Amino acid sequence: MTENEFIPTRYTAKIESGTVTYRSPSNIALVKYWGKREIQIPENPSISFTLNACATTTTVTFRAKKNTSDSFSFDFLFEGQPKNSFKPKILVFMQRIEKYLPFLKEYHFTIASNNSFPHSSGIASSASGMSALALCFMDIEKRLNPNMTESYFTMKASFLARLGSGSACRSIEGDLVQWGEHQGTTGSSDLYGIKYPYKVHEVFRNYHDTILLIDKGEKQVSSTLGHDLMHSNVYAETRFNQAHENLSKLKTVFAIGDLKSFITIVESEALTLHAMMMTSIPYFVLMKPKTLEVINEIWAFRESSKSNICFTLDAGANVHVLYPEKEKDIIYPFIKEKLVPYCQNGAHITDRIGFGAKKGVL
Ligand code: DP6
Predict the structure, then answer these.
(1) How large is the angle between the packed helices 259-278 and 236-256, nearest 10 degrees?
(2) What is the residue with the minimal CA distance to atom 3 of ligand 1?
(3) CB within 6 Å of ligand 1 — which residues?
(4) What is the model's pTM?
(5) What is the number of other CB atoms lying within 10 angstroms of the CB of residue 237?
(6) What is the pLDDT of residues 302-317, one digit of tens each?
(7) Best label site of 49, 210, 307, 313, fewest CB within 10 Å?
(8) Rounded to whole angstroms, what are the CA distances from 301 to 169, 258, 313, 338?
(9) Phi-psi group of 81: left, alpha or beta (phi > 0 → left; psi -120 to 50 → alpha; rest → beta)
(10) pLDDT at res. 216
């Protein structure tokens, strides 16, 4: 699909008012998106596990404005309370997507969001939040254009979510989603995420992600700034090529269930992301001492237990511990006993691979 195909022609139905709810999950990248061009075009392809427990539930209530003015009109509530500090981000999102959803200025919207994970846990809510909102808007568009196909709905929801936050385009579906053009992946696009189209071995089914909240503080570097720094990072081109190569390698890894190679790629991706931050100007170290201690514990346990535990990181200090379902009985007790003590007040979230957003869950 090209960008212009997301611009609707004429709507066939008319609606005065309504309400819609979506629950959309977060996702954890295995090959990382880090570096982008205008507007929200990734410098390299990425792939992620869709999560299940970490999610945002958003309800959008809408009513036709009496006089269609030339401005957006909306209220935003977070966990039941008006939250004006989030409004500028939503306004920018609406401005970016108006071309593709021309009804946006015709309604007043009340947008109410809740996160399943604790506020300021250091877990980014932009992927789940922006994808939930994009889905609600798409549901309204579907009411205006009832003939819309399901595949167009899903693709456009991902396309719109991307314009809110890049990684959000990987949260619409599950369980493995790829975003960004990649030679070896048929149907891949810079514009939206696609469900990974090749064989995935059953060892990856029900994969676990226990998220260790090492540092619950505000993000030290916003992802927008982080992505920007890649424009001048001397290693940027090499890094972007590496992401392409890692995705190519993952094709066989997923097909045959090669966990050893999976671990090498996933951990190397996490460390490379952090290496990019350390080699940017200005430079940042986003790990905390406890992040490193946890990594060392994971490596030592992997060696002694011969298990397939591994880690990945976001652009922060928290650690995502990944492991297969069939090893949970040896790995989860280790996490509880040895890794949870490194978390702030023992805070951690037991999550696992999920199957994407769902409509109507309050
Ligand atoms: C490190 O999607 O948060 O989590 O497009 O600026 O909203 P924006 O960035 P964002 O970046 C996520 C970066 C990452 C890696 C990843 O999820 O691929």
Answers:
(1) 160
(2) 223
(3) 29, 32-34, 40, 46, 124, 126, 165-167, 223-224, 227, 273, 314-315
(4) 0.97
(5) 12
(6) 999 999 999 999 999 9
(7) 307
(8) 35, 19, 18, 10
(9) beta
(10) 76
